[in-house]
Amino acid sequence: MQLLDGKALSAKIEKTIVDEVKDLKSKTGLVPGLAVILVGQDPASAAYVNMKKKACDRVGFYSVTHEMPSDISQAAIENTIKMMNGNPNIDGILIQLPLPSQIDTTKILELVEPSKDVDGFHPYNVGRLTTGLDGFVPCTPLGVMKLLAEYDIDVKGKNCVVVGASNIVGKPMASLLLNANATVEICHIFTDNLKKHTLNADILFVGVGVVNLIKEDMVKDGVIIVDIGINRTNDGKLVGDVDFDRVSKKCSYITPVPGGVGPMTIAMLLSNTLKAAKANSEERR
């Protein structure tokens, strides 16, 4: 069994981005800029945003966080997004999810300028991903593909089972795998007999937020597992959706939690923001 070390790969990617930021600045005078909207006081969301800000600082990005109260109005958030859409110093806009119940999340995500949609959630970018065209891809599944490539794991022709069908992870993960010529099966909350499907997986991707959902009798020997879930147990420990201690013994490769997919998500956010900055610098010339 070998660990898929996202922490090590993300550090390597960050070093490359540092060099590219310096090059961009020397040639154009521009620095990539990322703006984040954080609504409310959710500790997990605040922690994620803080991690993203620290990552921006490490690679030399300009970053700003718009912190808003949980009772903020739809109009107020929309006005902030419109302001950021028109700000030439902002290359990427990130809406930290989830948003409060009074906010229409779909409208908010659709309002972000597609060229600044570094989270890849705008329908324009979703459509380009689905049809195999270049655009912004959601950071977590994009990070997973980079991690597999780092370990020379080719998904072409492999039976890939994705557990979880969210717009943020499951669906874009399936699209990326299809684009890479994998055979893809998606399982979700209404899937009957999950074990029957996971046993068929050459590569299993799990991201639903359920501790120990995947047990050792649900996978075959030699399986590759990408655990995208992240959960905090009652004793404060961070764990994924896979019973790591038992299941890992049957794996050829598996991601740890933490230290697997999580760092790659932030690395891809940085990569997407740099991509946006380069495109915007071309337009300004």
User: Which stretches of 5+ consecutive residues score pLDDT under 50?
Assistant: none
The rounded Rg comes to 19 Å
Helix percentage range: 40-55%
User: How many individual domains?
Assistant: 2
Note the run of SSEs as H and E.
EHEHEHEHHHEHEHEEEEHEH
CATH superfamily of the largest domain: NAD(P)-binding Rossmann-like Domain
Distance between the termini: 50 Å
What is the overall silhouette? globular
Just name the CATH architecture of the largest domain: 3-Layer(aba) Sandwich
Mean pLDDT: 95
CATH topology of the largest domain: Rossmann fold
Write a brief structural summary:
The chain is of the alpha/beta class and 285 residues long. The protein has helices at 6-28, 43-59, 74-85, 105-111, 123-130, 139-150, 170-179, 194-198, 244-247, 261-284; strands spanning 2-3, 33-39, 62-68, 92-95, 159-163, 183-187, 203-206, 223-227, 231-232, 238-239, 251-254.
